[in-house]
Amino acid sequence: MTATSLDPVLLGHELAVREVVRETADAVSLTFDVPADLAERFVHRPGQFLTLAVPSERTGRVARCYSLSSAPGDAPTVTVKRTPDGYASGWLCEQVRPGATLRVLPPAGTFVPHDLAAPMVLAAAGSGITPMLSIVRAALAAPGGRLTLLYANRDPESVIFADVLDALVAAHPERLEVRHWLESERGLPTVDGLSALAGPTGEQPWYLCGPAPFMAVAQQAAVACGAAPRAVHQEDFHSLVGDPFVLAVAESASDDDAAELEVTLDGRTHLLRWGRSETLVDVMLANGVEAPYSCREGTCGSCMCTVVDGEVVQDSTEALAEEDIEDGYVLGCQSRPVGARVVVEFD
Ligand SMILES: Cc1cc2nc3c(=O)[nH]c(=O)nc-3n(C[C@H](O)[C@H](O)[C@H](O)COP(=O)(O)OP(=O)(O)OC[C@H]3O[C@@H](n4cnc5c(N)ncnc54)[C@H](O)[C@@H]3O)c2cc1C
Question: Mind telling me which Pfam families this protein's record contains (predicted)?
Fold first, then answer.
């Protein structure tokens, strides 16, 4: 059968799982083999995540994001903690064996420290440790400031990466300090308790990751310890609702229904026709331009870019902080063109 322009395109790449490591009773790490021709696409920055397609007899697949715990440059490794009654995390923790293949979108995400050499505070709870470990590994690979990791868990048995962190502290005692908070000993983290655990941290940036109630408390603790609200960054672990692996290619639009798009990505400029009903990310992907993206539902911020000329209308700006909007950022997956010509740049 001949493919028509309306056939949906399946995005992502099939990667083989090289290694499965059980970290705790509830968490596994999966390391992927990346073939040489994809190596460049799968280079990640510390704090980024992969999006995995988890097979489902009910829906075909579900898409879920998992932060990379590996150091940039190492084979990509994600760490999955089973969510009570969760479908994908349960499947990944139970079903995946070395040699299995999974469909994966390249690394994405903006939870990446601006300056890895600066002193910073990392506050994690449970599986929120995964992006922090990648950040710690990347920061310790070069000279730089002191890292304070506040790490909350239910009890000693649920501490993911306890040994890895001990070894990193032993190797870099002057750079890394890990301060644990165990619910079994101290109850749930409180603003006062976390502030006391951190001590005065002045203008250091804080990076937060964990369940929503933990991040709310940690956000207040960061400010109480001296951080400006703008210097507090957080990664929100939620489940995607849509399917970012499928791209519905639109019928080619007439001149009236399309704008001229000039988009610069990785130093290359592309000239494309941009149908008014299409989003920026979709029109780029449909034309073989590898736009950075993950959720394609406005929540992850991976496709943040700036409109340097022309205008777009956005369906949602959920992933953008007020400062991002002030700085002129838009979400590529939510942007449709207004007017005859739009010029866009990705950082
Ligand atoms: C940027 C980012 C990074 C993240 N990083 C991590 C990480 O490092 N580690 C980590 O553990 N988590 C991480 N998460 C969270 C992760 O993506 C998932 O949200 C989490 O694993 C829970 O997913 P779940 O499917 O197990 O649970 P849920 O999403 O709670 O599962 C329930 C959902 O699955 C549906 N469902 C149930 N059964 C089926 C079925 N048979 N077929 C289809 N659907 C079904 C239900 O309808 C319901 O909607 C991250 C999230 C984000 C956004």
Answer: Fer2 (PF00111), NAD_binding_1 (PF00175)
How much distance in Å is there from the Cα of 212 to the middle of ligand 1?
Answer: 15
The rounded Å distance from CA 239 to ligand 1 centre is: 4
- The DSSP letter of residue 228 is -
State whether the beta carbon of 277 lies less than 6 angstroms from ligand 1.
no
Output the CA–CA distances (angstroms, integers) from residue 183 to 52, 125, 148, 151, 159, in the order listed. Answer: 31, 11, 19, 11, 11
Task: Give residue-wise pLDDT tens across range 83-123.
Answer: 999 999 999 999 999 999 999 999 999 999 999 999 999 99
**pLDDT tens digits for range 213-236:** 999 999 999 999 999 999 999 999
Distance 230 CA to ligand 1 centre (A): 29
Please tell me the CATH superfamily of domain 252-345, with its number. Answer: Beta-grasp domain (3.10.20.30)
The verdict on the CB of residue 241 being under 6 Å from ligand 1 is no
